[in-house]
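Dear Dr. L.,

I hope this message finds you well. Following up on our conversation about the binding site, I have prepared a predicted three-dimensional model of the protein together with alpha-D-galactopyranose. For your records, I am including the exact sequence and ligand specification that went into the calculation, followed by the structure tokens. Please feel free to forward this to your student if that is useful.
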Amino acid sequence: MKEKIKEQFKQRFGTDCVIYASAGRINLIGEHTDYNGGFVFPGAINKYIMAAININGTDKVRVYSMDMDAYCEFGLNEEDAPADQWARYIFGVCRETIKRGGVVKGFDTVFAGNVPLGAGLSSSAALESCFAFALNDMFNDNKIDKFELAKIGQSTEHNYCGVNCGIMDQFASVFGKKDCLMRLDCRSLEHAYFPFHPEGYKLVLLNSKVKHELVDSPYNKRRESCERVAAALGVETLRDATYTMLADIRDKVSDEDYRRARFVIGEKQRVLDVCDALERGDYETVGRCMFETHDGLSRDYEVSCEELDYLNDVARECGVTGSRIMGGGFGGCTINLVKDERYDNFIATAKEKFNAKYGHEPEVINVIISDGAHKEMD
Ligand code: GLA
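The resulting structure of the complex is given below.
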């Protein structure tokens, strides 16, 4: 990918360039907890967005997307975001960097990626983090703090893309480290790296190929439900809520909001339980928690879909240790923790059964936990 981007850059803009990249992410557990001040447990993966960049001496940004075969340019002083969704991510990152007092000058760029779109692997966070990292390196002597880089991406989603997301995806993309999962406390932003080598197990994603699109999805509605319950409880976020507190206000919130909050309260604790279990090498507990998360996301939070529930059922039938829908939901992948000896049968069965029911096989993505945002060395 690197060579192709470089070559395309040379053809289009006729100059040399520097290459930056950032990664998509998985999340072992801790879904829809980030915007509730809870815990998440993601890691960056070896699927990247890569950009070739060079300063162009103007106040314009000129962008070519290789995957879309589309071109866009915008001025750094323009208030209006470009019409194309893909270009808004880059526009937003420039604006949000400037808003925070960072320097951004005109540049040319060509970018491409291999993070599957709409699979729940955060291709958009990878794109934002790639450019936030690059602008910091090119124009700001890397003085912008890494959390600020993640927030630049998150604010881009809020202000230019209509997704009121939490911090998890951008955090994972910016902070990702090879072979490590990261537990993040989304309230204090305290975080810890956990080396992840599940001896005897494989971590594999099955992409249902049901396109998940958080823009215009009920994602923002889920967040509003949580905020309503937090307000009814008189707490800042559901981080401070317990089952007992929730039971006390049951008749003051709708049944739907009640169930959303019930999921979040359980999920907060599951992240901590999974981290403890991992330290003991207790993968059975990790897997059990993953199944619990799936059930909660499907029944209480209602962000699953028929195809993902089916993949989860097949995983149970095949004796998979843990399986659940991953990411925002409404399509995308399941994440599965599978014993080595059960792996081949699980993959073959899932492909065959899913194909028989839905007319296509799920895409198998083996997870390799990798570094996040970085500059590519020659
Ligand atoms: C999306 C959002 C994240 C997070 C997850 C659900 O990926 O971008 O902030 O809320 O959904 O855990």
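In brief: The mean pLDDT is 96.

With kind regards,
A. P.
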